[in-house]
Amino acid sequence: MNRASRPRRGLSAVVTSMILLVAAVIMAFAVANYATNATKTRSTTEEVRLSKERIWMNYSGAVVAFKIQNIGGADLTVDGVIVRNVELNWEDIYYYRVPTGTTFTDELSIVGAATLSGTNFTVDGYTYQRASRTIPLISSGSMLFYVRNPGNLFIDDIGETVSFGVFTKNGHYITAAKVESATQQ
């Protein structure tokens, strides 16, 4: 039998169309699934903003103050506070949870290290409580922090810029502030 007289074998037009149609549907499903997962992941990411950064120092000690805002789409936990890359003890950290629906736009008031004692303290009408462990923060929530006597700040640091921040399960958020004198005169 020569080549020209052999019967041709192959897929019928109907089967070929069905295969192409199934392949197109599978690819469309994969693309839609990828887009959905990418959108969901990005809408629930953690994003933190630190602001109102201040550091005050005098011979009685140092105080670090700042505001943290959760501007991401997911709730988070503040797992620690660091100053110059050293994690601080929870008993030296005080926080105030800004009520949902309100904003805090004022500057944080200067507070001496001796004021930060006990289980809570009040400044400018806000009662700060001492932290004892990881602190949850809802999405779009804000908190104010005062930190007493980080062990790695000294009177000679006045005028220097010092880094500090918080860390969460998913990241470290660092900022910096110039150390100011806490002396009132």
How many helices does DSSP assign? 1
CATH topology of the largest domain: Immunoglobulin-like
Q: Which structural category fits the helices and strands?
A: alpha+beta
Tell me the span between the first and last alpha carbons: 112 Å
Strand proportion, as a percent range, falls in 35-45%
The top level CATH class name of the largest domain: Mainly Beta
Portion of residues within helices: 10-25%
| Arithmetic mean pLDDT | 87
The biggest sheet amounts to: 11 strands, mixed
Total count of domains: 2
Shape: elongated
Low-confidence stretches: none
Rg, rounded, reads 29 Å
In short:
With 185 residues, the chain is α+β, with helices and mostly antiparallel strands.
What does this structure look like?
The mean pLDDT is 87. The chain has one helix at residues 13-43, and strands at residues 48-58, 61-70, 76-83, 86-87, 93-98, 120-123, 126-130, 135-137, 142-148, 161-168, 172-181. The longest helix has 31 residues, at 13-43. It has 1 helix and 11 strands; from the N terminus they run H-E-E-E-E-E-E-E-E-E-E-E. It is of the alpha+beta class and 185 residues long. It folds into 2 domains: 3-43; 48-181, Immunoglobulin-like (Sandwich), CATH 2.60.40. Strand 10 (161-168) and strand 11 (172-181) form a beta hairpin.
Brief descriptors of the model:
185 residues, alpha+beta, Immunoglobulin-like, 11 strands, elongated
